Amino acid sequence: MPKLPRSLSRTLAAAGTLCALTVATAVPAFAAEPAPSTVEQDVTQLYQDVIDLYGGIPASARAGVDSLIDSPIDHIGRKQGNAKQAPAADCTEGSLLTYANQLASQLTPVEGQAFDALSALGQLYAQGVATDKQPQVFGTDGQYSSRATSAISKLRGFWDIESWNVQLVAWKGTDLGSPTKMAQTFGLGLAPARVKDAAALANKVLFELPVLQGGRNALLTLNAFSAPADSFGGKRVMLGDGILDVTNLLGFDDVAVEAVLGHEYGHQVDFAHDNFPRNESGEMGPDAYGGYFVAHAKGEAWDSRTQQEVTYLNASIGDCQHSHGTPDQRKAAGAWGEKQATGQANPNRIVPSATMITKFQKEYPKLVPPTAAQAALAHS
Ligand SMILES: [Zn+2]
Question: What is the distance in A from the centroid of ligand 1 to the CA of 217?
């Protein structure tokens, strides 16, 4: 508190007990101004703004976007129709998912709502506004930019699909702090008269809740995505800073950028061939293609120890909900892909992508033994 001017102090001191009591009772009443409920109101309003934004974009424009994991965050705009199936037997969720769920479980309801809204908002920026015509910064501090640039360039040359128009963009929580970028994002679907206020509110909330760390909390961007040609924003891979932070924390730092991009680009391989499996092979296929890429002499050409680390990363994102494959299944899919590279008579030959898809679809039933329950679990 600023010091009172000397003369005023004297006057107050002389004013007697009654006045002092009045001041004393007035202070708590003033301090009890409802600051927390203001944050709640802000978050509630922002949440509604983001729901309305998503409501203003045709669902078909957002269809087909594939996420790396079922993140505990970011449910606005996502299909909620898939009732969770009974968990796979003898399955322990991967370490990365366990970690993410733990982080999310520590949030208060208001914080959770803010994460949902802001994560969904930032994701829409990455999909609908961001472009790799501007230099992209990967990792919260740009520490992964050169690796990401190098990996996408190798991937474009590796697979025989149309590649020049597959964009690679960074999904950054710190973009939420830019009112200009958020106004562009809200402009995608919110009523024009509301855009400016909504963008300002996103910025306000980002700094109002300390847990958001001004956009640097990994939970805001704890995922990676691949989007097909006919989705809005067109063909693109989006790589979240949060997934890079967390894979780093869990010890996968030296393989995460290339492995995750290898997987996401694998979705582009499937998209290019209209291969949209309605079972876990939709996720395990890209794990396998990614494995092939990291182990191949013309890909990353990683040694066996590093290849093994990739399969452990695959396992860390496995779930037990028949969604993306269990840890064991994802690990096996990645290892199968790696074996296709290391077992080739000519290490420099790259199997055509169409052939790789066929080979994996043949292998897939061995990785996931078909059961009656399995057949019923194909999700839309
Ligand atoms: Zn995926």
Answer: 22
Please calculate the CA angle 112-228-265 and round it to the nearest 5 degrees.
85
| pLDDT tens column, 310-322 | 999 999 999 888 7
Domain tally, the chain: 1
Domain with 279, as residue range(s), is 36-77+86-367
155 vs 353: CA distance, rounded Å: 12
19 alpha carbon to ligand 1 midpoint, in Å? 68
In a domain, 240, yes or no: yes
Helix (H), strand (E) at residue 243 = helix 241-249
In a domain, 170, yes or no: yes
Centre of ligand 1 to C-alpha 281, Å, is 10
Burial of residue 291 (CB within 10 Å: 0-12, 13-18, 19+) is: buried
CA of 318 from ligand 1 middle (Å) equals 11
Q: What digits encode the pLDDT tens for the residues 76-131?
A: 766 543 445 567 777 889 999 999 999 999 999 999 999 999 999 999 999 999 99
CA of 195 to the centre of ligand 1 (A): 32
Dihedral of the CA atoms 216, 218, 222, 226 (nearest 10)?
30
Residue with tokens 């982080």: 103
State residue 370's pLDDT score.
53
- Asked whether residue 374 is assigned to any structural domain, the reply reads no
Taking the centre of ligand 1 as the mean of its atom positions, its distance from the CA of residue 66, in whole angstroms, is 6
Contact assessment for residue 46 and residue 202, using Cβ atoms and an 8 Å cutoff: yes
Distance CA 41, CA 119 (A): 18
